[in-house]
Amino acid sequence: MTTVLGLAALVIGLVVMEVVLHASHGLPPGAWGVFGALGCAVLIIVSKALGKAGLQHPEPPDE
Amino acid sequence: MSEWAHPAWPYLAAAVLALALPRGARPALLAAPALAVVLAWSLPEGGTLTARVMGVDLVLARADALSRMFAIVFALIGGLAGLYGSGGASRRLHVAGYAATAAGLVIVLAGDWLTLYLGWEALAVASFAIISDGGTARAWAAAYRYLLVHFIGDALLLGGIGWHLATGGSGLVGALPAGGAGVLVLVAFAINAAIPPVHAWLTDAYPESSPAGTVFLSAFATKAAVYALARAFPGWEPLVWAGVGMTLYGVVFAVLENDIRRLLGYHIVSQVGYMVAGVGLGTALALNGTAAHAFAHILYKGLLLMGAGAVVYATGRRRLSELGGLAGAMPAVLALYMVGALSISGAPLLNGFVSKSLIVAAAEAEHRPVVYALLMLASVGTFLSVGLKLPWLAFGGAAVHAPARPVPRAMLAAMTLTGALCALTGVVPSLLYRLLPFPLAYEPYTAAHVFESLQLLAGTALAFVLLRRQLGGKPAVTRDTDRIWRAAGAWVTGRLAVVVARVAVALEAAADSSVSQPIGPMPRATGRPVGYAVLLAVAAVGLALLALR
Fold it and tell me: By the CB < 8 Å criterion, does B463 face chain A?
C-alpha cells in the first residue's frame, strides 16, 4: 500500500513538474531530464576517449 | 583614529600565538576566527584604514559590500578549517593556515594595489608552508612548484602594478584600462584563478597537503583572484569564454581522476569557472552571482574536502581504486559529504542552488544561449563526478579497506557546522543575498526552476546508473598541462645552468690570471669566492630541477 501511494505521489509530482515547465518555458516534457542524461553520457564518452588518447597513464608506485 | 579594526588582526595574532602554544592549548585559538567574523560582519560601508609605511601612503583597507562579503566568508572558513584541524594538525599548519587567512583578508580588503600585492605575496608563502604540511617528498616537491609558479605570477603582478602607476594610473584598487600593465596584472590573476592552461599548480599541490591543509588551501588563492578580477576586469568578454572553458575542463578531467582530492581539485577549477564567467558577463546580476557563488563555493568545497580528508585520515588511502564500502563504517562522513555534493551540484535547498542560479540566469538574461547551455552541461558533470562517482566508488559496494582509525570529533564538528551553513543559506537565500554588492530582485525558488534542477539531476543519475561501469576507479593518473610547464621549466633551467657555469668559469679564469702577477709568493685563494658562486648556482639550479621534476 505504501509503495503504491509512493509511486502515485511520484507520478503526480512528475506530471505537475512537466505541466509547470511546459507552461513557463514552453519546453517539451522531460527536456531537462533528457539534457541531463545525454549530457552525462557525452561527458563520460568524451572523457574516456581523451583518457585513451593519452590523457591517462599508469600510476607511479608509492614512495 | 579609526573606529574599526582590520579582521586580519585576530588571525595574525593567532598565527603568532600558535608558534608558542602547546598542542593542547591550540583550540583556544579558535576565539580569533570568531572575533574576525564579528569584525568582518561589522565593517562599515565606505570605511577606510590608512597608514604611512616608509614614506608611502597605504590604504590598508577599504570596505564596501563586495569586499565585506569576501571578508566574512574568508573569516568563516579560516575558523572552520582551524576547527577541523584542531584535533591533531601540526603547529606548522596552525601558523600557516591562520597566516594564509590573514593574507586573504588583506587582499580582499586592500584599498590600494601595493597592499593587495603584499597580501598576494604573503598568501603564496603561507600556502607553500601549508602544502608542505603533507610531510611527504611529493608534498615538498609540489610546494616548491607552487611557490615557483606563484612567484612568477607575483612578479607579473608587481610589474603590472609598477607599470600602471608609472603611467599615471590610480594607486587605488579598481578597474584597469587595457594595455601592457593590464595584461601583466590579468595574467597574474589568471594564474591564481587557475584558468587553463595555467591551472595545473592547483591539482598538483592541493591534494598533497594534510587533510586540514587542503581545506585552508581551497578557500583563498582562487577566490582572492576572482575578487581581484571582479574589481579590475568586470565585463571583459574573453573572461566569459575562459570561465565556460574552465567549467567544462574541470568536469572532463574529474571524470578520469582516481585521486579523491585531486578530483575535487578539478571541481575547484570548474566552479571558479562559473565565477570567472560571471565577471566576464559583468552585469549586476552576474557580479552578484560571482560573489554569491564564491561565498557558497568556499563553504561547500570546504565541506567536500573535509569529507575527503576524513576518508584519507581514517583509511590512509586517497585513490578511488583502493577505496570502497565505507558507508557502513563512516555514515556521518558520508551524510555530511553528500550535503556538500548536492550543494555543488545545485540541488534545491542548498547554497549552490541559490548561487549558481544567479550566474546561469545572468547568461539567460543577456541572451547567451550557448553560454547558458554549456554552464548547465558543466552542472551535469559536477553531479556526475562529485555527487555520484566519488561516493559510489568510495562509500558504496563491498568494503575494501576498513578505516584504521576513527575520525576525530573536531573534524565531524567542523563538517557539521559547514554543512549547516550550506543548508541555512540554501533554505534562506536572503541571508546570502543581503550581502551582495548590488540590489537583487531574483527568486530562486520558483516551481519551474526547482523542477528544472530536479530533472537535470534525475537525468544525470539515470545515465550514471546505466554507464557507471565505465567510471570504475582505475590506478591511473591524468596528464595535464603541468607536464608541459615542467618540461619547459627544466629546459630553461638547464640552459640557464650552462650560461651560469660558463660565466662562473670565465670569472674564475680572470681571477686566476689577476693573481699570477710576479709580485712574490701569494696564496691562490682568491678563486674561492668564485668557486662558491659556481657551487651556489649549481645548488640553485638543482633545487629548481627538483621542484620541476
Answer: yes
